[in-house]
Amino acid sequence: MPRIPLEDNFTDVLAKAQRGLGLTDAALVRQAGVTVSALAAAKSGRIDEPVLRALAGPLRLGGDALVALARRLWYPRHPVFPHGFAMFNTPYADMTVNSYLVWDVRTREAAVFDTGASCESMLATLRSERLKLHYIFLTHTHEDHIADLSRLAAETGVPVWASEREPAPHAEAKSFRENAHFHLGELAIKTLYTWGHSPGQTTYYIKGLAWPLAVVGDSLFASSMGGSTTHYREQYRHDRAKILALPQDTVLACGHGPLTTVRQEKEHNPFFSQ
Known about the structure:
With 274 residues, the chain is of the alpha/beta class. The protein has helices spanning 10-21, 25-32, 36-43, 49-56, 63-70, 120-128, 149-156, 232-243, 262-268, and strands at 85-92, 95-103, 109-113, 132-137, 160-163, 174-176, 181-184, 187-193, 202-207, 213-217, 220-221, 224-225, 251-254, 260-261.
């Protein structure tokens, strides 16, 4: 698979933090001690390290990580799954969106997470690997993540599962509460509510693969996090308390952008490295 760009650049991070914290330009200028023109330049993409570091304080961002993101000095590395895991990256409007497939190599029992814009490659992998799909899990029900849900559900006849907090995505969808447990052979799947970006945004923590895996949807991205105009603080709190509290080598399968790990996000994500 070609290298997937980071979901957000440094201007996106600045905007998400300012909007989420409810800071006006006037308040941000005053607290950061920068000029109005300097703030405008930063928002438009100008890389001025002293200005970015000054803005990082009131925006509660890590200055080193913010500068590294702006200068494109970091891209995540992640462990390789020799088997039992597949990632699909499909174009949707002007972006791409990720969906995932995991399976137990002995029983061939499988689960998918979201559909992305198209489930065609996912269906092909299910056939080529001779997998028995048991679950369709949704991280949340924003259109880009469930664009091909009707087709996937119809062609597989498998139940669709989503958080009880999330709007019903499908006529016969089933719901779960936090800390629900599912099993696929030796794989154990646990649901964690990491809402904020959407009312029922869910992270699925999976043990039994070569590495611990968390399918986080739009809760968190490599070097960024899911935005919210109304529940930014909740999204931030859930990311820190539930996702970044997982084992350091946990691979984070994000809704957009590349895979990353808990350890790397603690060091390189401006939202969490301060």
